[in-house]
Amino acid sequence: IMEDYLSWRGFLYLRLDGSTKSEDRGDLLKKFNNPENEFFIFLLSTRAGGLGLNLQAADTVIIFDSDWNPHQDLQAQDRAHRIGQQNEVRVLRLMTVNSVEERILAAARYKLNMDEKVIQAGMFDQKSTGSERQQFLQSILHQDGADDEENEVPDDETVNQ
């Protein structure tokens, strides 16, 4: 759909997805990052992109298909936040209200929140014992369960009663 729209508007763009040959990927990146290029849009499938893609010529990242794995979306954003980036990078996320996309985003936020609590709490620094880590994780899960009850979003059936 996005590609059809860009063609209809006459916008020149580059595209990298699962069907792109690995030998063509480097050429696409060089074209896009060249300051003299005529392309200002790079369509990229986050999973097809893999690691190490550098899109420092981009100053806007638009995520229109959020991933269940929040680190995939973060990596997509980070492709524009590279050494050599001259501009402020804006990140936009497109989604439909009251859709599965909202649930995907909520799950992704929950996962990132859990990452922050577990890893950044320092319990996995090789200094704590297995039982201490397990007790810590149980307390986090118990706390998150209580938070979920307070902030639970009613499902469609409940709302329509």
TrEMBL record:
The record's listing under Pfam families reads: Helicase_C
Show the GO MF annotations: helicase activity; ribonucleoside triphosphate phosphatase activity
Q: Which InterPro entries match?
A: Helicase_C-like, P-loop_NTPase, SNF2/RAD54-like_C
Keyword Nucleotide-binding assigned to the entry: answer is yes
What is the protein name given in its UniProt record? Atp-dependent helicase brm isoform x1
Region Disordered: list its residue ranges.
141-161
The UniProt record lists the EC number as 3.6.1.15
What Gene3D superfamilies does the entry give?
Answer: P-loop containing nucleotide triphosphate hydrolases (3.40.50.300)
Q: Which domain of life is it from?
A: Eukaryota
Provide this UniProt record's keywords sorted from A to Z: ATP-binding, Helicase, Hydrolase, Nucleotide-binding
Domain named Helicase C-terminal is located at: 1-135
Q: What class of enzyme is it?
A: hydrolase
Question: What spans are recorded as compositionally biased (Acidic residues)?
Answer: 146-161
